[in-house]
């Protein structure tokens, strides 16, 4: 439901998209199927390297175990780490192994290395992904350099690893740009949400405004013809407020309004809704209370306000008119009933409550 206190600041931290356990398991199935398919193709064609003959079943077993553990209460983030460790560990060591002399140099294993950077941002939040990216980058480049130098001149090994370093740096840079774009979009959405919240809140008292309570009515489906909901409306009007302004000035008048709103907010149930209906008029919407309970609430509010002393101003009173959902077929009609009772309360001397006879 709508917040009555908008967020003061927008969280500027970079956060990774949340991977739900079902999505994580889907990714694991893709990994299991992918590894199994490549293993089957390599084994069937007879070109399977010694490294792969061992590493494929190890990785597949690890993925299956992580898949099964993911159904337990195990920390999901740790499982994400573990899965990433298996993938990154496999891809780096496989490519390095293939670059060692006699192991089928420059096989196509290196082309998969870019996946390490993509997957790290998929699994980890950005704070952890950044150092992981640096570690993977350094391990990949130095590992390949030392593998190549064993069978090539330093110059040749340097050229190949430099190429690799540039390509990988571009991968990282582009991925980082995508993440930043996404974070900017998230911030724009958060800001829009915050502005939307402001449109429903009265700036002076921080209570909901008319549009705000309208929205609450819609969200709670209170005016639905099919499902009759039990609610009551209390229209609370400050007595002789014009005098408060005339005698003390508008700024003090504002302070009185804010203090009364605060007092009402602290006196109602957390599920009750406070709205500034207009000038010196507030509305409390309360749900699922009996008429007696609503009268008790109204009496508590009347008493609470009457005890306020604001900048030496005492004896502030309110008149309250009550309307119940069972008394009418639309919220407009309930408001009208509450308003009529408020009029009666004012006519009968103020500082009092009026509701229909039970
Ligand atoms: N300080 C301040 N005054 C406001 C604000 N909004 C409305 N008012 C004042 O509220 C007063 C309402 O006056 P009236 O409608 O005559 O009502 P009242 O003096 O409270 O008299 P009763 O309701 O009949 O008891 C006016 O003087 C408005 O200027 C506001 O945001 N700040």
Strand content: 5-15%
Question: Which hetero ligands occur in this complex?
Answer: guanosine-5'-triphosphate
- Total helices: the number is 11
Overall pLDDT, averaged? 88
The ordered H/E elements are HHHHHHHEHHEEHEHE
Relative helix content: 55-70%
Q: What count of domains describes the coordinates?
A: 2
Number of strands: 5
Shape: elongated
Q: How would you write the strand order of the largest sheet?
A: 2-3-1-4-5
Q: Pick out the low-confidence regions.
A: 1-16
Structural class: alpha+beta
Query: What is the alpha-carbon Rg in Å?
Result: 34 Å
Determine the N-to-C terminus distance. Answer: 32 Å
Sheet with the most strands, sense and barrel status: 5 strands, mixed
